[in-house]
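>> Question from a student workshop board

For tomorrow's exercise we were told to take the sequence and the ligand below, predict the bound structure, and bring the output to class. My setup keeps failing. Could a helper post the expected result so I can at least see what it should look like? The ligand is adenosine-5'-triphosphate.
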Amino acid sequence: MLSLKNLQKSYIDAGEKHTILNNVNLSIMPGDSISIQGASGSGKSTLLHLLAALDKPDSGEILLTSSGESCGTNNKRPNDPQTLSHDITQFTEKQADQYRQFKVGLIFQRFNLIDCITVMENIMLPAKITGNVQHEYIRNLLNALGIDRHINKLPNQLSGGEQQRVAIARGLSHQPPLLLADEPTGNLDGKNSDTVSKLLVDTCKKLNTSLVMVTHSEKVASLTQQQWYLNDGRLSQI
Ligand SMILES: Nc1ncnc2c1ncn2[C@@H]1O[C@H](COP(=O)(O)OP(=O)(O)OP(=O)(O)O)[C@@H](O)[C@H]1O
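>> Workshop helper replied:
Here is what the output should look like for this input. Compare the format with yours to find the bug.
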């Protein structure tokens, strides 16, 4: 479970302070699917970067609560020896790296595929790093995403939509407990966007993976259990 508490984030631009996130609170339970909509520049990607421990808030906490496993600092709750709680905003670089490798799948707006290795090697990176290589699961994922015939190509030999599907497969290859997806179907046409976003939500449900998805599409957002809107730094449920 992730609990965002009183998150505050601002940027200084030309000497002026711009508040991007203002007292944001949110709870993400295992298996939850959450969409975040909002105007361009409203802070959606900023929020995902904080959840991925790629950036730090000015203040507030992001508490990661899990049972029994260690990931960085250990703050045991009194009376519950099974539960460990970590504030990911306090992670060192090394702890943040481990958190991203083992706990998080990331699908970026610009895919971030590695151009000099094949599609399959890109997809398998998180699975290999975490030692969680499930061949049948990967085969089914590739089939469902319709990219099985492209696995030996290089990413730049694929269309934008195909690269997006590869990025989705890579985000899910290690079956992470949390998937953060920034406009995961933004490069797909309407029909493919529907198919792929449904697959994304269904796969996360099957794996009990929490999904936080930024989208500009109301239709895609409607597939998630909870729909939130970011406006003026405030997050409100639709
Ligand atoms: N490193 C930075 N330094 C200064 N300003 C930044 C920085 N990163 C983001 N911003 C500003 O913060 C605001 C929020 O950016 P963010 O990328 O989170 O928006 P977004 O809602 O994801 O937008 P979009 O839908 O266009 O992707 C923007 O005005 C952006 O210019």
